[in-house]
């Protein structure tokens, strides 16, 4: 058994694993940033009429006529 070759192979595996973990951390950080930005956009957007109070005409949206 060649100890030098085994040592090099194990070292290469460790480097590859560290690289994949680093890429995964970057992806997680990007996802967190996107979620934070989306939450900020939702908070600053105009509220929906149903949550902000009564609509201008309370009869709008009460019935839906469908014929098939």
Give a structural overview:
The chain is mostly helical. It is 68% helix and 0% strand. It has two helices and no strands. It is elongated. 0% of the residues are buried.
Main pleated-sheet profile: none
Instruction: Name the shape in a single word.
Output: elongated
- Count of helical regions: 2
Helix and strand sequence: HH
What's the N-to-C terminus distance?
79 Å
Rg value: 28 Å
- Total strand count, please? 0
Mean pLDDT: 83
Helical/strand content category: mainly alpha
Which band does the percent of strand residues land in?
under 5%
Which ranges are low-confidence, i.e. pLDDT below 50, for 5 or more consecutive residues?
A: none
Summary of the model, kept short:
The chain is mainly α and 68 residues long. It contains 2 helices and no strands.
Top keywords for this entry?
mainly alpha, 2 helices, 0% strand
Topology of this structure?
Layout: H1 3-44, H2 49-52
């Amino acid at each position: 058994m060649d100890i030098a070759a085994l040592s090099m192979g194990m070292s290469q595996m460790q480097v590859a694993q560290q690289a994949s973990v680093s890429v995964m951390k970057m992806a997680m950080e990007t996802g967190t940033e996107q979620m934070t930005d989306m939450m900020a956009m939702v908070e600053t957007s105009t509220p929906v009429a149903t949550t902000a109070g009564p609509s201008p005409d309370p009869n709008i949206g009460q019935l839906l006529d469908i014929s098939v």
